[in-house]
Amino acid sequence: MVSCLSTVLADSPWYHGHMNYTLMHKKLPVLELEIAEDIAAILAVGEVFAPEHIPVGIEMDGERPVRSSLNRWWMGRAIPASRSGLRDALQLMDVSSTGLLLLKCFGLSLSDQYWVDSHAKPLDWDKINFFENEFSEDVGNALFGRPLQSGEVNLISPDNTSDGWLRKKWVIDKGRRLLVKGGSEPAYQEPLNEVLASSILQRLGVPHAQYELAWDGDRPLSVCEDFIDTSTELVSAWHVYKTAKKSNNHSDYTHYLRCCEELGISGVRDGLDRMIALDYLIVNSDRHFNNFGVIREAESLVWLGPAPIFDSGTSMWHNQFSYRINPLMDAPSKPFNTKHSAQVRHITNFDWLDFSALQGIEDEYAALLEQSPFIDDARRDVLCSALVQRRAMLEAIAARRR
Fold this sequence. Notes:
Layout: H1 6-10, E1 18-25, E2 28-36, E3 42-48, E4 60-61, E5 64-65, H2 67-75, H3 86-93, H4 98-104, E6 114-118, H5 125-128, H6 138-143, E7 168-173, E8 176-181, H7 190-204, E9 211-216, E10 219-225, E11 232-236, H8 237-241, H9 252-263, H10 268-282, E12 293-297, E13 303-306, H11 340-343, H12 361-370, H13 377-401
Antiparallel strand pairs: 1-2, 1-6, 2-3, 4-5, 7-8, 8-10, 9-10, 11-12, 12-13
Helix pairs in contact: 7-12, 10-13, 12-13
């Protein structure tokens, strides 16, 4: 049973109690957990019921997960400490930590089907999952710095398990689960870049999350619909990457492909070709292992292939002064290489890339930038010219490689 550490922990000066939970995968019990009430950390792992449904990438000891690895996965579901406006939001909600927010919503997410069910008060998946049930916008509003309604704050929200450093919140509109995301100072350019990336991928026929532009006063926001539903889930590239030990002879790119191959996930190399090409074109500086990945069916565990491309806002020199924008200069990249000039070499096939489909994309981008009061004419012109040059540079690379 999960009470194996209770006696020792009860005597610890920092420990103030525990609760027993079952880690669930939709309606399937996966394993038993002991979680500290005050810090929301996993203290012990109990009986394992369905080892094949343990989250991807958890370090295993036979058919049992290593507690420290499982705890990193669990705490990794919480809002990151780097989230813009987080400290003020926690004060506004009178919550001491993001871990407690995670526990308040039982770890429920709009990205996968995992959650924890309390032994003291068992819950019904059909009545609580965020894909089919209403949820509070109090947490999201607090993260956007908006005053909360008087009365008790409702903390049952998928915003408790949202990743990333920019302000964001989930809303329901006509039954659709929409993610609303802001930008960062000084240009608040990320939402405009998300829409640009959507347009590029739409023109090229590449699967992607479709972003639209919205406004919070004079500040732009990006809005996209959840591409996960009640039967699927997103597994981050990082968790796939952790399914096998990396050989010293393999690059990060080769290791990731090897992990996907061993798991039986098809279409990954083609998906990476498209993602790397986009990131080179728009100079994406933050394509880390947690903002791309693969999709699988939650119940059957069948892999469906690469996730649609999403989260491309940290691009087009979003945090650079206009005079420092130079499309000809090599730019920082992630996740496989530190420079785009090196990372673009991983592309194995350019036949899918119809450059004629990108004619006039700079005019579309200009129309987007013109809507923002934070982007002056000079910055707009520099960005659009840079986009044209990046397209020409990528076309030259493709011509040499074809």
